[in-house]
Amino acid sequence: MDGREFRFAMGNFSTGVTVITTEVDGEVSGMTANAFMSLSMDPELVVISVDEKAQMMEKIKESGKYAVNILSAKQQDLSMNFAGQNKLDKDIPFERLSGVPVIEGCLAQVSCEVTGSHVEGDHTLFIGRVNDVHLEENEPLIFFKGKYRSLSPIEEMVRS
Ligand code: FAD
Ligand code: NAD
């Protein structure tokens, strides 16, 4: 198995898309990420995985806080902007949730403080204790096989 094959296999796991945001010395930074999951209910914890080469690594270490912004199907341009794949030619407005910058128009904004970090391979897992969430009714942006998609409903099965 080579790296390409590994990425190809992982790309078959469809995910939502998030932008991780944080702030250091009044400067807001964002990074597109799909390595995000809900970790614990009691206490409420989430985890993200950040590449050692990403600028976001040091920024989160320094701020000790981050927010997970779950993108809507209308926010593909934001995903591409924060993955460095294109540049929006307008300023992106940030709101604040529990003192952490968040992006408007997302399905969910999840504001966290870092309670632990684990280096594994070439990524660091940042455990975040959730301080606040804000929800909006929207359709999600999906990432599958390296491409963006939107959800289409299928017939719901009845539980027996
Ligand atoms: P930079 O390269 O400095 O920033 C990324 C981009 O965001 C730059 O173009 C920058 O101009 C822009 N930007 C930053 N702050 C602002 C701001 N305040 N206003 C406007 N624009 C701004 N990598 C991971 O480590 N973990 C993942 O889970 C992950 N998942 C991904 C999922 C998808 C679908 C994609 C497409 C990429 C994913 N990546 C992931 C890769 C990651 O998004 C890129 O490598 C990214 O460029 C890393 O950003 P950086 O922290 O190095 O910051
Ligand atoms: P891709 O085909 O590279 O990604 C498919 C899947 O492979 C991703 O969903 C992820 O699960 C996995 N993957 C890709 N790069 C990884 C990495 N460096 N570490 C761990 N898992 C990784 O998708 P793409 O559209 O070509 O991606 C654009 C860029 O974003 C690439 O440079 C890619 O490496 C990066 N990316 C990084 C991660 C990550 O660090 N977790 C996740 C997705 C995409």
From TrEMBL:
UniProt key word Oxidoreductase: yes
Pfam families: Flavin_Reduct
Ranges of residues in domain Flavin reductase like: 10-150
Superkingdom of the source species: Bacteria
Keyword annotations from UniProtKB, A to Z: Oxidoreductase
Entry keyword annotation includes tRNA-binding: no
Protein name stated in the entry: Flavin reductase
